[in-house]
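ZP: hey, is the adenosine-5'-diphosphate complex queued? I don't see it on the tracker
AM: it wasn't, my bad. submitting now with these inputs:
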Amino acid sequence: MPRGQLILIEGLDRSGKSTQASYLASKFPQSKLIKFPDRSTPIGKLINEYLTNKSFSLSDQSAHLLFSANRWELNHEIQTALNDGFFVILDRYIYSGIAYTLAKHDDDDESRTISDSQLGDVDWLIGPDRGLPKPDLTLFLTLDLEEISKRKGWGDERYEMQDFQSKVKQCFLKILNTETDPSISIVDVGQKSIDEVSTLLWDVIESKNKHVLINDPISYI
Ligand code: ADP
Ligand code: TMP
Ligand code: MG
């Protein structure tokens, strides 16, 4: 039986991911919208504590592994939905996992006495996600931080700081290689209204035939 496709929307905080992901989900007759981190699961609750309570401390490696474990909690649900003919729309996924941790390494203070070299090792960072379903299409929404900063404000969660976000953006662009991976599209959404972005994303989806059921097996990270 043909399956649905796995479509991921990635980007910085406030780039419009959640707005576009829910619109996109409404475009398909059968779809499922999944947001990562999913804060409702056992591991998601720990992640929520980590993000919202700055005195709740975890090593950077442990936090990284928890975000990946949270994806594994939803693995069966995602694959079952795809095989049942649903289009699964993801709001963040593995690339957020890599980029946010990589940005911590770039943030590294050279006077640290304990080496955290894993944080800069993309192979190590992707390791725990190996075996998860790979998106058929990744849409990375990019726009200037200056424009982003004018959008409705951040809360006070961990990572919601301008300097760190700018490092995250560089890290995303470092790991998202459109030349070696045709499933990745970097979409410039600067100076565009919500409706214009929706149209643009749908154009990419249609041009790459990601809106139709397919017979190809699910691929894996
Ligand atoms: P994210 O999920 O990436 O953090 P959201 O979809 O929650 O981003 O959008 C963040 C804020 O920016 C919301 O207030 C949303 O209404 C607004 N927004 C989203 N897309 C646009 C756009 N293209 N132009 C202007 N404002 C936008
Ligand atoms: P949210 O604001 O989209 O709910 O995401 C919560 C934060 O978690 C956001 O700052 C990005 C970060 N994050 C990671 O650090 N690693 C991950 O794997 C994911 C999915 C999100
Ligand atoms: Mg969001």
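AM: back. The chain has a mean pLDDT of 94.
ZP: great, adding it to the tracker
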